[in-house]
Amino acid sequence: MNKSVFRCASEEEQMALGACMARVFSGKPLLIYLNGDLGAGKTTLVRGFLRGLGFQGAVRSPTYTLVEPYPLEGMTVYHLDLYRLSDPEELEFLGGREIFSGTHQVLVEWPEKGEGWLPLPDLILQLGYQDTGRRLEVTCEPADCDRLQKQCAAFLSDSGL
After folding, report:
1. 15-51 burial: b if 16+ Cβ within 10 Å, else e
2. Which residues are bridge partners to 126 per DSSP?
3. What is the dihedral of CA 158, 142, 133, 121, to 10 degrees?
4. How far is residue 123's CA from residue 110's CA, in Å, rounded to a whole number?
5. pLDDT-based confidence at 158, cuts 50/70/90?
6. N or C: which end of the chain has fewer CB atoms below 10 A?
7. Pairing state of beta strands 30-35 and 67-72?
8. Taking 80 as the threshold, does the pLDDT of residue 141 lie above it?
9. Cβ neighbourhood burial of 74 (10 Å; 0-12, 13-18, 19+)
10. pLDDT tens digits, residue range 46-87?
11. Residue 134, SS3?
12. Distance between CA atoms of 50 and 158, rounded to whole angstroms?
């Protein structure tokens, strides 16, 4: 697995990076783990991701519902927030078998709460604070990291790892 580091100076840039990532993986089943402290911008990135796929409706944080589906043309995108999950087996009752069938794009906040039940991700995103903006470290297969670096180059960090 390779790593790429991106930097966003504002919430708008973070949404733009999310949209860029969505365009890179448009139409392809995908599982993304989103890691980071409360307030690091996980839902903001998801909002940008959905906008990049053409979704124009409200994007809610699934903090209390645990899962929010977004049916788009040709594929459903699921946004999960597992922060309040008590046991990974609860994913079964949330429709986990369908959600993680490998035919959707799925973005999971707090994936460690589903450890042992969740399939392996295609991308792991670690969001953190950097100065007044955000730092986003992406762990992915070499080909996926190359595509992200080429198509989302405007957000690449100069500071490296």
Report:
1. bbbbbbbbebbeeeebbbbbbbeeebbbbbbbbbbbb
2. 35, 137
3. -170
4. 14
5. low
6. C
7. unpaired
8. yes
9. exposed
10. 999 999 999 999 888 888 889 999 999 889 999 999 999 989
11. strand
12. 27
